[in-house]
Amino acid sequence: xxxxxYEEIAESLRARIAAGEFxxxxxxxxxxxxxxxxxxSRATTVKALDVLRNDGVVxxxxxxxxxxxxxxxxRPAGARRAGSARVTGGMPFxxxxxxxxxxxxxxxxxxxxxxxxxxxLRRVRILQLPDGSPHSYAEAWFPPEIAExxxxxxxxxxxxxxxxxxxxxQTGRFPAEGVDVTTVRLATEIEAHHLGLPEQTAVAVxxxxxxxxxxxxxVCEEGVxxxxxxxxxxxxxx
Length: 238
What we know:
This protein is α+β, with helices and mostly antiparallel strands and 238 residues long. The chain has helices spanning 5-18, 31-38, 42-54, 106-112, 144-149, 163-171, 189-195; strands at residues 58-61, 65-68, 73-74, 91-95, 100-102, 120-128, 134-142, 175-186, 202-212, 217-226.
């Protein structure tokens, strides 16, 4: 499906940011400049910039314009319905260590369809509350065919356009279905360390798996949240 003009402009800016033309804190072209470059109305370029803002790629800075986000934003595992922006429910996060190849836990390996002894690419981050304290600990696991085709997943630097768009650009595969499984258990030693919890603390665990248009797993992410920070609300007709 062909992109609408505002989507084309937004994707062009994403690519330029991803290539390093505009770094964190840099000002991106104004709506007026973009309108001249693309021979479109200001309304079209404003819509394009709003797409990037909703995805947490740029932020509006009074008196300056739109600048590339300096603090990466992500959502906790799960509840990633189609059309939801990255900044909706998003939180600042810190990357833990460097992405590495490791054999995933059995529950993750089963979801990804990996046999014993097969490694996957792991990316770990801690999502933060407004005061900087940890909210949740998340491990994202990418199957080998996705990780090998998407080399930037192995880098520590944030991916400005988001991993979903980057993986789609690299592989042609995109999320068509998400499955979230929520359980409760005690935090592991590593989780307790990163979340600043006493040992034997109860945590909620959301195992989020995204499947592509052909039903193949794209990523499996396990998000661990201490009980005081976890709340799940659903609204439905009766």
